[in-house]
Amino acid sequence: MSTLETGTETGIETRIRTASAPGGRTRTAPHPLRSELRRGFAPWAGLAFSATVGIAMAMKAPQWQGSWGATQADLHIASTLLGGPLAAAAGCWHGGRERRRRTDELRASAARGTLAQFLMASLPVAAWIAAAYAVVAAGVFAATWPYASASRPLLSPALADAAFLVAMTLLGHVVGRLVAWRPAAPALAVCGYLALGVPTYGTAGIRHLSPASASDTGDLLPVWWQPLAATVWVAGLAAAAVLACAASRKYTALLPLTAAAVAAVLITQTGDRMWRDDPLAHQQVCDTSVRPHICVSALYPGLLPEVKAALSGLTQRLEGVENLPVRFEDLAGEPKPDEAQLPMLTPMGWTLVRGELTDPERYAGEAAAALAAGDPCEARLGDERASRVDSTVADWLGPSRVRDTIERDSLRWAQQNGDKKVVAGIEADGAARARLASMGDDERRAWLSRYFATADSCDPKQVPAL
After folding, report:
1. pTM for this predicted structure
2. 5 has which bridge partners?
3. Measured distance CA(11)–CA(260) in Å, rounded
4. Of 131, 251, 292, 304, which shows the fewest CB atoms inside 10 Å?
């Protein structure tokens, strides 16, 4: 004697009891939720998410590897702007499964409640999307770990992103249940992308209702409640939609909807104040064994040896020279009167990639130019002699093969076209560099000391002759 209870793929429990089984044991089929998790559409949705977001992050790896802030900012944007619409489309496609298979009437006749059926069908996809996000996040953090020398990854923003993806999946499932249109899934993905992306171009506080509009800079940190408010906002909307669609008491949707409304008001009213400066962005680590001292941002302390090595030729040429700035600094804003600005290291992917300078020679040349010319006033820039002296000092401190090649090509072009003024200017620049290079060490140190004493002067007459 046996008993057979059957159901649909939406999660109705299936059991088979066989009296003739050895020892009278009851053989129970796997729980429907386990079957949904292991087979069907859900694993493919997770694979599609991990491939989409993983490839997007890999393509921009030079721009985030080496900074925890940049890593989490880029992961957040990729997960929300790309992963969010994909999660909604996956949920939408899965939500219309019974209609496509013409088993919706069988589902409606099941003993299990509509809300339980909804959750049994939608949660496996949401779980796979969240798991795929966790895998991508773990891979991204592992890729950053060898190159990041300060700070640490933050858990709360990552959890908020995972909650957002689950909410988008559930919202998509609701749309799939209600909209009997096969292209609904891709249409929802496009609409979701626009809904998430367009507000990021605004300036009002309402733009922060889009999770994709969060800070995308690595030197800003969310206040402690920002991830919580963002989660309540999106999760409240998703819960309200699910309850309105599947709950027997529709009015229960008002509770999560109210919570979402409160979170939305908090988010829009607070606006940019939901982020604060990273304290490390206002601090520096310095090497005081050379003059000028070399300081880099405390966000990237591991770069100090790299920067010192790039500037080694410059600091060697300045040994014994007086009236130098106290330090090279690497903070936002203008340097102090006794400081010189280092070339910008951020955003990553240009000057700096994976903890290494892409062109140390160019970096040293830019540092030399900042040291020699500083921030000269218009009167000094407009004087041909003073301007030539400034550029000569910068060229001698930070020689560049690229600059020499450009100068030779410019001279050849000017000679071929008979531009005597350009030829005379290039020849005068070369003669000035030759005079500085031909000086004895003591004579050059004395001349450079006089030069740096006038580096901040607006009077071109005070610049020593060369």
Report:
1. 0.84
2. 15
3. 29
4. 251
154: burial class by Cβ within 10 Å (0-12, 13-18, 19+)?
A: middle
**Cβ–Cβ < 8 Å for 133, 54:** no
Which residue is listed with tokens 């076209």? Answer: 417
Contact in structure between 37 and 20 (CB atoms under 8 Å) = no
Q: How is residue 442 written in tokens?
A: 């003591």
pLDDT at 200: 84
3-class state of residue 69 by DSSP: helix
Q: Give the type of residue at 62.
A: P
Cβ-Cβ contacts under 8 Å for 385 (sequence gap 6 or more): 460, 463, 465
**Rounded Cα gap, residues 463 and 443, in angstroms:** 16
One-letter amino acid identity for 254? L
14 pLDDT band (50/70/90 cuts)?
very low
Residue pLDDT, tens place only, 423-465: 888 888 889 999 999 999 999 999 999 999 887 788 888 888 8
* Alpha carbon distance 122, 152 (integer Å): 34
374 three-class SS: coil
